[in-house]
Amino acid sequence: MTTPSLDTNLCGIKMSNPTVLPSGFLGTSKSLLKRVADSGVGAATIKSVSFEAREGHKNPTVIPFEGGMLNAVGYSNPGAEETAREFSNLKEVPIPVIASIIGTEPDDFVRVVEKLSANEFSAIELPLSCPHTPGFGLLAGQGTPESTGKIVAAVRNASKLPIFVKLSPNIPEIGNLAKAAENAGADAITAVNTLGPGMIINIEARKPVLSYKVGGVSGQALRPVATRCVYDIYEAVKIPIIGTGGISTGRHAIEMIMAGATAIGVGTAIYERGIDVFRKICQEMETWMSENSYNSIHEMIGVAHE
Amino acid sequence: MTTPSLDTNLCGIKMSNPTVLPSGFLGTSKSLLKRVADSGVGAATIKSVSFEAREGHKNPTVIPFEGGMLNAVGYSNPGAEETAREFSNLKEVPIPVIASIIGTEPDDFVRVVEKLSANEFSAIELPLSCPHTPGFGLLAGQGTPESTGKIVAAVRNASKLPIFVKLSPNIPEIGNLAKAAENAGADAITAVNTLGPGMIINIEARKPVLSYKVGGVSGQALRPVATRCVYDIYEAVKIPIIGTGGISTGRHAIEMIMAGATAIGVGTAIYERGIDVFRKICQEMETWMSENSYNSIHEMIGVAHE
Amino acid sequence: MSEFASFDQPVMMKIDKIIDESNGTKSFMFKYKLDYNPGQFIMVWLPGVDEKPFAVSYLGDDFFGITVLERGKFTKLLHQMGPGDRIGIRGPFGHGYSFPDSVKNGKGSVCVIGGGCGMASVTVLIEKLQNNNPTILMGAATSRSLFFKNRYKNLTLFTDDGSEGIKGYPTDVLEDLHNKHEYDIIYTCGPEIMMSKVFEFCKKHDIQFEASLERYMKCGIGVCGQCVCDGQMVCKDGPVFDLQALSNMNDFGKYSLLKSGKRVSLQEYADWRSC
Amino acid sequence: MSEFASFDQPVMMKIDKIIDESNGTKSFMFKYKLDYNPGQFIMVWLPGVDEKPFAVSYLGDDFFGITVLERGKFTKLLHQMGPGDRIGIRGPFGHGYSFPDSVKNGKGSVCVIGGGCGMASVTVLIEKLQNNNPTILMGAATSRSLFFKNRYKNLTLFTDDGSEGIKGYPTDVLEDLHNKHEYDIIYTCGPEIMMSKVFEFCKKHDIQFEASLERYMKCGIGVCGQCVCDGQMVCKDGPVFDLQALSNMNDFGKYSLLKSGKRVSLQEYADWRSC
Ligand SMILES: Cc1cc2nc3c(=O)[nH]c(=O)nc-3n(C[C@H](O)[C@H](O)[C@H](O)COP(=O)(O)OP(=O)(O)OC[C@H]3O[C@@H](n4cnc5c(N)ncnc54)[C@H](O)[C@@H]3O)c2cc1C
Ligand SMILES: Cc1cc2nc3c(=O)[nH]c(=O)nc-3n(C[C@H](O)[C@H](O)[C@H](O)COP(=O)(O)OP(=O)(O)OC[C@H]3O[C@@H](n4cnc5c(N)ncnc54)[C@H](O)[C@@H]3O)c2cc1C
Ligand SMILES: Cc1cc2nc3c(=O)[nH]c(=O)nc-3n(C[C@H](O)[C@H](O)[C@H](O)COP(=O)(O)O)c2cc1C
Ligand SMILES: Cc1cc2nc3c(=O)[nH]c(=O)nc-3n(C[C@H](O)[C@H](O)[C@H](O)COP(=O)(O)O)c2cc1C
Ligand code: FES
Ligand code: FES
After folding, report:
1. CA-CA distance, B175 to A139, in Å (whole number)?
2. ipTM
3. D interface toward A at CB cutoff 8 Å?
4. How many A from CA of D39 to the centre of ligand 3?
5. Judging by DSSP bridges, how do beta strands D135-140 and A195-198 pair with one another?
6. Mean pLDDT per 10-residue run, chain A (306 residues)?
7. From the CA of A220, how many Å to the nearest CA of chain B?
8. Considering the entire predicted model, what is its pTM?
9. Cα–Cα distance between A271 and B69 in angstroms, integer?
């Protein structure tokens, strides 16, 4: 039996396997991107960057619970200029790197895109879907087809790079939103961002644990909803999908691919299984694929729709 | 140290403790309500009833996963007339019993209310929030302030019983929706129904496991979102809240009460901890309350807002 | 292929081989380890079709099998499958037969009565009771629907129409047999009308009794209430109940719930189930 | 009160007692069991205020304590708390000091150097190394900020201003001490500029070396990337690193990330942290 191939082609970006480091995990420095590449990831996304530097919310900002994790980091980032400096010479990182860009108005996104234009990013991701940061994502009304269309169109004008639009699992008609992104020129959909928000209260303290009180839910709690979102989006658009949410094993990855994903994001599972989770997932996928006679990722994409 | 009291007063309904059996769990027959009462529950809700009988979706309809449960039962029920027969002589059940009533148009709800008017229910619950049954809840557009207002007003006209409106965790501005229900005459809010929907695909079968493909998410995956919903609703309305979603221990129950709940629903945890879960939760609450010097439920409601 | 022993979600298992038990009845064998007690059940899923409960009728250290009478759409599709095809299985669920002190270590006099495809539920039980050398009675409507008739030598067959074995019901001969064997316990699985006759007999003669009930099931895990029989969830508290428990269950032998949750007579239930 | 040993979410713990260590430094003692290895850290939460990492400075079978210098808003509020008040604690997190074969069972020559409030991180280590009779060097800016000076008898004190002990840095005397003791390993925690001097010394003399790094932390569990030092997450891969690991970390002794993630010189970082 030949070893199945995990090679993945994500709108022209060649990856040695379908795993992607989602934005907000470890993507703070070039040195960490190299480390994640050493751990077997197929591509990596940097921590979302706004034009100006942001300190984010106070600690606690991240808290695990039985069903995964809650976070309200609040988009801390050193701003576009610093980010351009930190991620210069990206050729040193042996995998494709995706720039995650945030803003309030379409122009904000464009200004960041311009600052990063000399860096060797492989794609731009627009997370229009954060549920817990005032001025951004859902709290800035970016989760509508109109707003999504406008922002994508503006960035489309400003860059030739593939554009990924990252959607929220909170949106009921997520297929329509994906369609709006596709129509405005998006090259792929990242589905999904965190769910909720949710809240965890410490009953002895009588207070929410997160300093921002509420935070987005990631991890296994999110997985069935993320899978359904990918399934719905696959029926609505032709562009590829990066399925993200609660994936921590090879089986989960294959489930997401069968729902319609071409690549898969793995974030919260880093906490559960360590930074080596990418290599572990790839090995588990390979084993399952050879036992079940699949030769390539491509043979599995969207087959749950048959 | 005196034993703390779990006595709960839910808009005039006296309960010996704050636990409630939510609709869809075991509420198919009077005999099971007695059984649940023996297991220590404070009040019980019957399986949701429509005017006509419904067979619901095909099996599989319920499936556990690491984060809780997915279900798409599809509102199977024997119709209003049979339900009136099954739940006659409710005095035999030693706890308050809540009638869960569903329909598409406001009139449908009223027709069921009328059929059940001779039964000794303690309250009426209107789940305007199911995410996976065509013709009902979210799939019938009942999750808007307008639609919610209309249905509640119609039922308000048709019955003197306290009305509970059950909301979906999928609604972003859940406080507004609760406010609309309160304004239309609701006496309490049940928060929340299942989340999503979600999907679980069996990768060897290459098919979603649920026959309806998608189903609502309940259990621990839902808990932080449910807690946040209760927290938001508590800030928006004055009527009491039945906090429901992922509660399986006394600590979870107290967390929900501190978020603003007066009573708490316990469904999926029946699977994890058995039907005795109600007694177990009450014991755990009592122990915690005496260790932490609380004498009554009332002292804890909403304190996380301070 | 045998790393699983019980599972919450359906696991797709390859059919290893198929045994023709009789005209219309087939057994499907799987090479998997299953932690199964006789009387428990598994849920069998045909993706895109439906999911139904079945008893396990063959059990070894690393294999098990189910025996299925072709009755409706689901069993028809199952009967069309061949070795190598995969079906989904979750479970086992519920509580099986118990083994009171009176029957332990081969002492104690035991009778096992199987009726119709209820016979599938008692085979693993019979094998576990081998040292007790139990009386085995098996009934079926007609010769065609009898299966396992050659599986045990000390077995008495009954058919309603006399087309094979003794004409009549297994219950017809209970009085005589009990006079001779003085049973400590009678186990049974079959049509509820038959089981309730045995129940009455055991009550009268003060014999221990265990019966496996059948109700339409949805969740199979004790949350939905579909399988209720008088405050008991057949999927979780049962499917096997003893004399004591059954004495408190007024619906036993009388009522069952349709898929809608409507409580009807067993006859009306049987008519619905058979189509 | 001691059913916990490590925890993902903050557990509110009652302060059992408070020890005044020096003017401006207090230790907070808790009657809880903690599964702690010297060098690990815990996250301390003041509800509604903030959450910060601290080392454990006292450890017994059923108690532990932390030692805190009053510096900013958070430590000021902490210093205002009294016995019976509760603070949130999660952890312990990260990897602590290791004990190579060369120092096991009391053999091996060891030196421990604490600087500033880094001293809090080496006390539990010193107690674990008791049989090695380690050289203990402690430095502080001034007499006022020295603490634990009476906790160990074989301890040499240094102050920058000479207000107590020897005037100067602990690193000033390393050469002499090593000539005398021929250290197998030197452990240190303190300002990174001090630690990097010790690092260079160990590298030159081929001495084993372990240092506990300090970075601003958010998650504390290795997911957010805030605490990065050259591809290593200080919260998860550290905070203790050995000579080998530090040799590959160009940022060690040079750069750290502000709360925004901006990478700046250690001086700029220290200026930000001190306010
Ligand atoms: C735990 C459990 C597991 C099950 N597992 C399986 C399974 O593995 N495979 C499967 O196909 N089905 C299974 N079933 C289904 C169940 O066995 C049948 O629904 C039920 O036995 C009726 O079967 P039938 O239609 O073949 O019986 P029928 O043909 O109606 O009756 C069978 C025999 O029962 C006796 N009997 C009938 N009426 C009376 C009477 N009035 N008095 C005395 N005796 C009478 C007669 O001997 C008759 O021939 C299971 C049921 C349970 C409870
Ligand atoms: C794992 C870990 C745990 C920690 N735990 C705690 C804790 O429990 N409690 C707490 O309050 N803080 C803790 N910290 C914080 C940390 O100790 C301080 O941020 C750091 O030591 C600076 O402290 P300071 O401002 O008091 O030092 P400073 O006053 O700046 O310096 C202290 C001493 O270090 C030496 N030194 C300074 N500069 C040099 C130099 N150029 N060359 C040689 N030697 C020099 C001198 O002897 C000086 O007196 C921890 C840090 C780490 C890494
Ligand atoms: C601590 C943390 C920080 C995150 N930061 C970002 C971010 O800056 N930008 C973004 O688009 N998504 C962010 N996310 C969302 C993740 O990228 C991802 O969509 C989500 O966690 C679901 O995947 P998972 O379940 O594998 O973690 C963050 C999530 C976590 C847990
Ligand atoms: C199997 C199942 C059936 C349900 N049926 C109903 C229903 O008929 N009506 C309704 O309002 N909610 C129904 N629900 C939702 C529950 O009442 C409850 O709101 C939800 O499960 C969250 O609580 P939990 O996490 O404690 O289970 C159902 C949930 C499950 C799992
Ligand atoms: S089948 Fe659902 S409770 Fe038994
Ligand atoms: S503090 Fe988040 S990775 Fe270390």
Report:
1. 15
2. 0.92
3. 8-12, 43, 45, 47-52, 86, 88, 217-226, 228, 230-233, 251, 257-263
4. 30
5. unpaired
6. 90 97 96 97 97 94 95 95 96 97 95 96 93 84 91 96 96 92 97 96 97 96 97 98 97 98 98 96 97 96 96
7. 6
8. 0.93
9. 23
